[in-house]
Amino acid sequence: MNKFRAFNSSIFGVLIILISFVLHADKASWEVFSQSGSLKVLIQPQAEQYQIGQYHNWIIVVKDLSGYAIDDVNITVEGGMLGHGHGLPSQPIVTEYFGDGSYLIEGMLFNMSGEWTLNFYIQNSSYKDRARFDIELSF
Hints:
By secondary structure, this protein is an alpha+beta fold. The protein has one helix spanning 2-25; strands at 30-33, 39-45, 56-64, 74-81, 86-87, 93-99, 102-108, 114-123, 128-137. Helix content is 17%, strand content 46%.
């Protein structure tokens, strides 16, 4: 009887770990106001799941405070782990505009779990702004 309980406890523990991994790796989104307060910016991974050490794509959505899409902007991506003193291990770039303020960012890569800071510099003839995201990633 004790062996059966130990076996069930082990399986339960493994299931909890697997469920935690799936929940933490699931698609998430973050939304902030830009530094000037004139833009609302949302970011999220394009895929439902992404893994540490593998390149993946993200979506960035840029709108004004009334909810109108901001088109024709140049977006530059920078970031890193401030607590560790290093930048992103990749150089993500915006490659496509989907419409309605949504842009594709290709080449995102995270090499470890932890607190990451992502800065998106947004610029066109009307805006020169920055959106900063402090996100905690666990895989």
